Amino acid sequence: MAKAKQILLIEPDNILGQTLSGALESAGHKVIHVATAQDGVTMADKITPDMVILELQLVGHGGIEFLCEFRSYKDWENIPAIIYSTVPPLEFRASRESLSGELGVVAYLYKPNTSLLDLLRAVDNNLARKRELSADAAA
Amino acid sequence: MTSILPPGSMLSQHLLLSIAEQIKLPLIQISRQAEFGALGLETDLGQIKALADNGIKLVESYAMGLQLANQNSYELAPEAVSVSSVLYEADQQLRELARLYNVSLELNIRGRFEPVLAHRQGLQAAVVGLASALIEALPAQNSGQQTTLQLATHRCRYGIVAGVYADIPSLSSDALKRGRKLYGVSRQPLVEVSHNPAAGIFVADAIFRAMHLKLHVSRHHRLYGLGVVLQTSSQMALV
């Protein structure tokens, strides 16, 4: 049986955090839920996640600040990040290239119209893609 | 472009925008929880009800703020009010939300306080709005730690203070001042305190203003919070 993938979930809302964790765990993933960007960096240092899912609106340091910090470490530069946020993607239209480029965002999902099933699909697709890329690199 | 709306309307529009952003949260929470069934997990109907009630309270408080500002409702006439009883009732209304957010809610109404002259419903709606916003915000500041929120009253030089308090040193007068300028414009007007628009705080602010009161940053023992100074009702104190 394949080893469960570790997902670092940075979600400030406690209730949504529990709901998302429950859904991801039901799909066979191991979830570590934190509420702040600082705790996200601390936890990533402990566990080196396979994927990060994050909200952009956080108390204090925001999600973009987290991504800038996260990508500054070589060990973490290939870990895919999914934005799952209440901020409409339209607001990031101008900076789409830097999101998908240097910040390594593989999907931008808008919370109000992204169901749990859509989120699980995005997670599975991007984890599979990461596996393929790792296999290609090893070959 | 010059607005044809009077300044009061613009204020209401900002507040409405802030509420529209805020109300997304309980609706998303309910929608995602309702999807649990499709994943073979158990949907928590109790949670859905509590989240819906929280959204309804926010909208009702906004409507009450507008009614108070327009002074067109006889039901909102000032009366002698016991602050302790208002805080007690607010505590009862907030228990379920606090439990869902893993926030320990405490009621600190020890001591004898004279009645104050206020709109009872307005005061209660404002306290519930403030506390709801902080209940949502507190767990966003400390991952996984249980936090405590106090509904408390104490006497000060100018009257009796009713407020909500927690261990939030980042809640300063400057932060509140900036928040007042930013609400309805920024998605996170109180970025040091809350991850969402914290509309409950600004609705409470509007209700207090309509009651000719001012919400301010306040301390209660070692805790930081938001409170309002209420004038005691001298006539009622004599009785």
Structure described in brief:
Chain A contains 5 helices and 5 strands, in the order βαβαβαβαβα. Chain A is of the alpha/beta class and 139 residues long.
Question: What features would you describe in this structure?
Answer:
The complex is a heterodimer of chains A (139) and B (239). Chain A has helices at 14-26, 37-47, 63-71, 96-100, 116-138; strands at residues 6-10, 30-34, 51-54, 81-85, 105-110. Chain A has 139 residues and is α/β, with parallel strands linked by helices. Chain A has a single domain (6-138), classed as Response regulator (Rossmann fold). Chain A has a five-stranded parallel β-sheet with strand order 2-1-3-4-5, sandwiched between helices. In chain A, strand 1, helix 1 (14-26) and strand 2 form a beta-alpha-beta unit. Chain A is globular. Chain B has helices at 7-34, 45-70, 83-100, 120-137, 173-182, 199-210, 234-238, and strands spanning 79-81, 103-108, 116-118, 147-156, 159-166, 215-220, 223-230. In chain B, the strands form two sheets. Chain B has a five-stranded mixed β-sheet with strand order 2-4-5-7-6. A two-stranded antiparallel ribbon of chain B has the order 1-3. In chain B, a hairpin with a 2-residue loop joins strand 6 and strand 7 (223-230). The longest helix of chain B is centred in the N-terminal third of the chain and has 28 residues, at 7-34. Chain B is globular, with a radius of gyration of 18 Å. The N and C termini of chain B lie far apart (56 Å). The relative contact order of chain B is 0.16. Chains A and B meet through helix 1 and helix 5 of A and helix 1 of B.
Number of helices of chain B: 7
Helical residues, percent of chain A: 40-55%
Taking the sheet with the most strands of chain A, its summary is: 5 strands, parallel
Mean pLDDT of chain A: 92
Percent helix of chain B, as a range, is: 40-55%
The dominant shape of chain A is globular
Give the count of structural domains of chain A.
1
CATH architecture of chain A: 3-Layer(aba) Sandwich
Low-confidence segments of chain B, given as residue ranges, are none
Q: Tell me the Rg of chain B in angstroms.
A: 18 Å
Unreliable stretches of chain A (pLDDT < 50, length at least 5) are: none
* Overall SS class of chain B: alpha+beta
* CATH top-level class of chain A: Alpha Beta
Biggest sheet character of chain B = 5 strands, mixed
Oligomer status: heterodimer
- Largest inter-chain interface? A-B, 30 and 37 residues
What percentage of amino acids of chain A are in beta strands?
A: 15-25%
Could you tell me the mean pLDDT of chain B? 87
Helix and strand sequence of chain B: HHEHEEHEEHHEEH
| CATH superfamily caption of chain B | Histidine kinase-like ATPase, C-terminal domain
